[in-house]
Structures are given as C-alpha cells and as structure tokens.
C-alpha cells in the first residue's frame, strides 16, 4: 500500500529551490526519503563547490519544502561526519569531526535538516567493503 514517487535529474534538481518545492507540494507525500548526494568522496576534495551545493544547499531546499508542507523527512547521511579514529562504534550523540570535505558537507546537510525541518530522521550509513582476493 505504499507508493514510491521517484525523482531524479534532470526533471528534479535539489539545488533549485523552486523545483524541489513544487515537486514536494504536488506529490502531497507523507514522507520524503532524501537520497540525493554528491558521493564521490575523493572528487569532493577538488569539486568542493559542487559538493557543497548538492549536499548542503540542496538538503536545505528539501528541508524547507518539507517543513512548509508539514512532511516528514528522512535524510541519508554518513559516518564520514566523524573523525574515523577510535576503536569503538560511534553513538548517535558522539561529537562530530568530519574526516574530509565530503563529511563536512554531509554534516552541513544534517544541520540544515535539524535547523529547518520539524519532522525528521537522520540515518548515518556506514559502508563496509569486504575485500576478497580472487585466485
């Protein structure tokens, strides 16, 4: 009974506030799962403006549109908002200290959600790659 309404470039651009506001208002959704992101961690170090525009400014646009339309927002973030140091798992209330520019912009996105959206969930994903040597 759940209908998903996908949105992607070029029809929907989260860096264009009117584009995202119109989409969210038109769909009359119960919730938005915000998956859009600049995720190339290495390229983020040289494409800083584009990375910030998508991960921070775009997220602000989504958060504001959700608040305006009283819609829940699920924001997909990352463990890169932490330093990466230590040997115990990070708790949700651990001090953030982004380990790179990508992590900085995702933390900016988290803050945009916290500061501008009334109903939200922030999910910090951890990517674990298991390397296997093929014989």
Structural topology:
Layout: H1 17-27, E1 31-34, H2 41-44, H3 48-68, E2 72-78, H4 101-116, E3 120-125
Parallel strand pairs: 1-2, 2-3
Describe the model.
With 135 residues, the protein is an alpha/beta fold. It is 39% helix and 13% strand. It has a three-stranded parallel sheet with strand order 1-2-3, covered by helices on one side. Helix 1 runs parallel beside helix 3 (48-68) and helix 3 packs parallel to helix 4 (101-116). The radius of gyration is 16 Å and the shape is globular. The model has no long low-confidence stretch (mean pLDDT 89).
Number of strands: 3
Rg, alpha carbons: 16 Å
The general outline is globular
**Alpha-carbon distance between the two ends:** 46 Å
Low-confidence stretches: none
- Total helical segments: 4
Give the biggest beta sheet: 3 strands, parallel
Strand content: 5-15%
Biggest sheet: strand arrangement: 1-2-3
What string, H for helix and E for strand, traces the elements in order?
Answer: HEHHEHE
Structural class: alpha/beta
Rounded mean pLDDT is 89
Helix content: 25-40%
């Amino acid at each position: 009974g759940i209908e998903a309404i996908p949105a992607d470039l070029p029809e929907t651009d989260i860096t264009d506030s009117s584009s995202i506001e119109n989409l969210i208002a038109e769909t009359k959704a119960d919730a938005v799962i915000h998956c859009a992101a600049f995720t190339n961690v290495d390229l983020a170090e040289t494409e800083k403006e584009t990375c910030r525009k998508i991960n921070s400014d775009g997220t602000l646009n989504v958060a504001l549109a959700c608040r305006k339309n009283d819609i829940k927002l699920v924001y997909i973030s990352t463990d890169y908002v932490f330093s990466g140091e230590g040997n115990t798992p990070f708790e949700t209330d651990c001090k953030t200290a982004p380990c790179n520019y990508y992590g900085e912009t995702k933390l900016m996105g988290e803050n945009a959600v916290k500061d501008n959206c009334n109903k939200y969930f922030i999910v910090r994903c951890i990517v674990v790659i298991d390397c296997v040597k093929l014989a």
